[in-house]
Amino acid sequence: MQKITEKHLAEKAKDLLSQGKVSAVLGWRRGEFDYDVTPALFTDADEIENGLVYNCFCGANLSKYLVSKIRAVEGRMLVFLKPCDTYSINQLFTEHRVDREKVYIVGIPCNGMADITKIRNAVGEGITGVSGDECLRVETLYSDEPAELCLADVMSERCVNCKSKKHVAYDELLGDEGEVLDSHRFDEVERIERMSPDERFAFWQRELSRCIRCNACRDACPACTCEVCVFNNPASGVESKAPVNEFEEKMFHIIRAFHVAGRCTDCGECSRVCPQNIPLHLLNRKLIKDMNECYGEYQAGEAVGGVSPLTDYTAEDGEPGDLIRRRDTDA
Amino acid sequence: MQVNEYKPLIVAFCCNWCSYAGADLAGNNRADYPAEVKIIRVPCSCRVNPTFVLKAFQRGADGVIICGCHPGDCHYTSGNYYTRRRMAMLFSMLDYLGIERERTRLEWVSAAEGAKFAATMRDFVQKVAALGENKRLEDLRCKK
What we know:
The complex is a heterodimer.
Chain A: H1 6-19, E1 24-29, E2 38-42, H2 45-51, H3 63-69, E3 77-81, H4 83-94, E4 103-107, H5 116-123, E5 127-131, E6 135-140, E7 147-150, H6 157-160, E8 172-173, H7 187-194, H8 197-208, H9 216-220, H10 247-259, H11 269-273, H12 281-295, H13 320-330
Chain B: E1 10-15, H1 19-28, E2 37-42, H2 50-58, E3 63-68, H3 79-96, E4 104-108, H4 114-131
Parallel strand pairs in B: 1-2, 1-3, 3-4
């Protein structure tokens, strides 16, 4: 299998630009450091040559950026999507948030993204550079020799349990077609379910009380595309961090999880961008798991035009109590 | 005699067409149910947004019960089916966060079931009273 690097991406982008098939390219560029890669819009070949990167820090799901960026562009926009990102764009097509005709999707392979927090935990502070893909060389201020790390050891939590290497939407693929994986993404949810209610409460209290209400989870989420958001409403009671107790944290996170229930493509962006490292994807996965158990397997974004379990019903659905009771008898 | 006997605050969302009429019938029949139950009339049980349940807890409710028409009897044909799915997910999520599962309930009560309404409320109030005050979803900003 041919290895796809940022060179291939840049060539493809310049090619399509010069042919006039697309008028802009949505990709990633390096930030101040190697590891703070950020989404970027390119419109000419020089910018792409010097700016476009693709490495294990290109976690950002670009489909979200299409919603706002595509309006500013005449003609089609090229977007590079990793397999899990294509689920998100399918969901955006389903909800008519992005016009299919205006996007040119180039599917790119993904071997999992690195988590800079895990790298920091392994090598310490003062990271000046990170290079490599399978095997990472990490240079720090405090050591002459770069540290060597295996990507598998510092992979983002969401990528450890990757649900699919298959692109579900694309115009063109770079590299080979992947497959939907038999992932263990619900294992952690099951572990929490097996705890006693007191332990569960303590667990979530510990996690959610770190929330600083920065709204990054909402801003990065490709399912959160409302232009007027409930969290900007001062009367919502959860608009800003309250100095009293933990209620608004729970309320905020339940609301957030519910607003994307049945539409969440489980891309894990919420957890990736959380500056407090709250495992937010565990709330979304809980809802996906429950819906799968009760109303049949459904993964939002698998295809354009899917019907979410919460906008559907059958006369034979179980009562709310049945679900919880069944879990008790299983345990 | 206990002077400060703990009385839970219960919010009951009742659909206009079945459960609210069921509550009315309970009253007409002099069927006793605790005064701690505060009824909020909604056009249909599916009018109850999950946020309403959370807001009720925020404002000091110790238990929230949602009552609607029996499946198949919805005035709007299918509202209660959506309620059933939505509330199944919400209750499961609250359970996942470690909130006591007895604090929430969904019950089907028709306009003819005054006795069932009263019995359900008696039972629910008793269960919630046994749990005590709602500490896990309280909001100090809303406390007097």
